[in-house]
Design goal:
Largest sheet: 8 strands, mixed
Radius of gyration: 14 Å
Strand order of the largest sheet: 9-8-7-6-2-3-1-10
Order of helices and strands: EHEEEEHEHEHEEHE
Distance between the termini: 22 Å
Strand content: 25-35%
Bound molecules: zinc ion
Number of helices: 5
């Protein structure tokens, strides 16, 4: 069993704010959920927006920005449990998303929000999002709706 990612309500609302701010500029938004593993779960303690370049259908995190992320992880002893990004239209995992995903560990989670998250609220976050998980065969597989709760959910 892979650990369940638990994120507090505040973390979801911070995530939505970042994605919506990018969306207002017609750019994809990207955040990382940083957390700590504890037995059967990963508790998210920080929503981190990496320095990046973005356009309407694209984002790129340059190497110096990834070094900043790594320093943050080391100093706080955290891991990137999930990456969350927005799309202008439908939520899916594009070829570029598959290839350029920042996190590559087995069970890594990638969440995609449609319409720049402009219609998303804390309560609709998980129902609107498409959730993908990296398999042991290194493929991003979409988690079916009924399985999302086991992969990631709001903790409070
Ligand atoms: Zn994408």
């Amino acid at each position: 069993m892979s650990p369940t990612i638990l994120i507090p309500r505040l973390g979801i609302s911070q995530t939505i704010k970042v994605l919506q701010r990018s969306g207002q500029r017609r750019h994809e938004g990207i955040v990382f959920w940083l957390g700590r593993r504890a037995a059967d779960r990963i508790e998210i303690v920080e929503v981190y927006e990496p320095a990046h370049e973005a356009k309407a259908d694209f984002f790129h995190i340059p190497p110096h920005s990834m070094q900043d992320v790594q320093a943050e992880l080391r100093s706080k002893r955290l891991m990137i449990a999930a990456q969350v990004h927005s799309h202008p239209m439908e939520a899916f995992h594009s070829q570029a998303d598959d290839t350029w995903a920042v996190i590559r560990h087995v069970d890594a989670v990638s969440i995609v929000l449609p319409y720049f998250a402009s219609r998303t609220s804390v309560n609709t976050f998980f129902s609107e999002s498409a959730v993908f998980q990296l398999s042991s065969a290194n493929c991003w597989l979409q988690v079916p709706d009924h399985g999302k709760d086991l992969v990631c959910r709001m903790s409070q």
